[in-house]
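Regression check, GMT case 380:
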Amino acid sequence: MKIGIVCYPTFGGSGVVATELGMALAKRGHEVHFITYRRPARLSVFHENVFYHEVTGEDYPLFEYPPYDTALASKMVEVVKFEKLDIMHVHYAIPHAAVAYMAKKILLQDGRYLPVITTLHGTDITLVGDNPAFKPVVEFSINKSDGVTAVSHFLRDETLRKFSISTDIKVIHNFVDFERFRKIDKDHFKKAIAPNGERIMTHTSNFRKVKRVEDVIRVFEKVHRAVPSKLLLIGDGPERRHVEDLCRQIGLCDEIRFLGKQDAVEELLAISDLFFIPSQSESFGLAALEAMACEVPVISSNAGGLPEVNIHGKTGFLSDVGDVEAMAQHAIAILGDDQVLQTFRKNALEQAQRFDLSRVLPEYEAYYEEIIERSAVRVD
Ligand code: GMT
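Current build output:
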């Protein structure tokens, strides 16, 4: 198959899923064309079946906001025509689903029907999509997609609750590549971070408000009093300054390391004993899944799709959003006992295996085939 993939090229979860999916499809022999404004963060390795088309606009004094949507639609049309793509898979509805609809209409003038699949990832529905500034276009373009997937049952239900949707939404969960995310021996590294055998807790995110990184610090403050421990914070974003200030206020700077954006997250997960994801809203929680694949139990909120990934009392614990006391007690229960930690580690790995790339990839391939076949009879 010749597949176009449109996504945000940043470290955000939707871009990561899109990129990992594209690379896995390429390894299976499909021809994959990424269309983005920058090379996707995880698209670092050369592969003969992977092509990258950069969206470039023209700057003009009239444009306070360069018209990215127009440039992206034009690039989609160009790539579909010249590379003869079979299907376009857009990740994150805004603005990609609407732009794909425009590209489809343009291509139709040449008698070419472009099947479009939109994957809903989370904030495109839960936080941004139902804002009146975007809602009519988001709703319209979801309904006009030939296929729609959501990364969790929660997100599908939430989409149906918030929007007037006349099309089926298929749930295809996030996945993890065990070739990359697995427990590896990094003991020398662990000794450098925790020289006295302290437990290591980790949080990774884009430090947006929705991630509630402050809760991570509040929980750590309590856990640290009971269990000798260190905290690693991976990623960067708008809340980082505030979180750093908080660490200074509570006097735990020596125990908390801000590592910024990291490419090799798996090496840090490999030395971690516990992962925190206390999000306000989380459609799935890819970061939690990657931690679990590295045998790291998870302390999470019970928001959104997190209960589909993290199993309470088995792979970690879930608490109400903002309940830092419960999160701390749960963390201490796991970290305070070697035997308990080992059991949770084993359970986390078993649960993560349900989302192995090799299981999820065929679901996407089958869906592409279904949508292409169904679209063969479409004319509008
Ligand atoms: O909010 C983020 O962390 C980024 C966001 C995105 O769309 O780029 O991530 C969302 O997509 C991920 C991949 O499908 C999901 O695992 C995340 O749960 C989801 N984030 C939220 O819903 C907040």
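Comparison notes: Residues 12-14, 17, 92, 121-123, 151, 174, 206, 210, 281-286 surround GMT (CB under 6 Å). The two ends are 22 Å apart (CA to CA). No diff flagged against the previous build.
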